[in-house]
Amino acid sequence: MDTFGGIERLTERQKEILRLLSSGHDAKSAAVELGISVHTVNDHLSEARKHLGASNSRAAARLFADFEGALPKNEGPHRLGMSNPNDDRATFALSDAWKRWTLAGGLIVILFSVALIGFLFGKGGESSEAAMAAPNVVSTSPADGSTISPGPFDLTVRFDRPLLEGSYSFVQISPETFPDCRPGDKMSPDRRSYTMRCTAAAGRDYEVWFNRPPYMNFRSTNGVSAQPHRIRFKAR
């Protein structure tokens, strides 16, 4: 019997039925799967056996499966609507899904790394800018515009960061508006404040600058001169 010629004579419906039988169906379940009667299935199988010279329908299904390059399966009919757990398509689908998740995960890691690097560089840039910014006066004693009692007082200036020790500029505009102060200064333990002991005369108006060009010796620990700051006060 010319098997190839017999296969060529099979109809598409007969091929569908033989495929179902080779995958474990019987005539009844094949009929349900295809939506036709069992009688019609048996008629198609009878014709297929003749074309292939097979002694029974299972043998015909095996011949057809061998021709298509698939192995026959005798696991019995599967539940309708349920895929075969050994179907390679499930494996391929799982593999594709895993690849997609892996790719997505890798992309997320890359984006997170880029964001983290940008954040770190940004923070580093901010730290560098902060370090190079000029110190600013945050408070003084006496306060600007205040009135103090005549006599000894502490002239104190406080900055927003530590300063160089032994480097300061209490600047006078004129001798008449600058209090009488002792030489030298006192620095606070946190290195943010300088204090000079001075004396105020009754009825005098005073003006003091903390840094004023060209005298800019209040400096941060990395040598940046503080912003000039002026106060005016009275002794009454």
Describe it for me?
The protein is α+β, with helices and mostly antiparallel strands and 236 residues long. It has 2 domains: 3-79, Orthogonal Bundle (Arc Repressor Mutant, subunit A), CATH 1.10.10.10; 137-235, Sandwich (Immunoglobulin-like), CATH 2.60.40. It has helices at residues 3-9, 12-22, 27-34, 38-52, 57-68, 88-132, and strands at 137-141, 147-148, 151-159, 170-172, 180-181, 186-187, 193-200, 205-210, 229-235. Strands 1, 3, 5, 6 and 7 form a 5-stranded antiparallel sheet that branches. Strands 2-9-8-4 form a 4-stranded mixed sheet, with no helix packed on it. Strand 6 and strand 7 form a beta hairpin. The model is unreliable at 70-92 (pLDDT under 50).
Domains, number = 2
As residue ranges, the low-confidence spans are 70-92
CATH fold field value of the largest domain: Immunoglobulin-like
What percent of residues are in strands? 15-25%
**Total E-strand runs:** 9
Would you identify the CATH architecture of the largest domain?
Sandwich
Q: N- to C-terminal separation?
A: 132 Å
Indicate the radius of gyration in whole angstroms.
49 Å
Helix content: 40-55%
Biggest sheet details = 5 strands, antiparallel
Order of helices and strands: HHHHHHEEEEEEEEE
The global form is: rod-shaped
CATH class of the largest domain: Mainly Beta
Task: Return the average pLDDT rounded to an integer.
Answer: 83
Alpha plus pi helix count:
6
Q: In terms of structural class, how would the helical and strand content be classed? A: alpha+beta
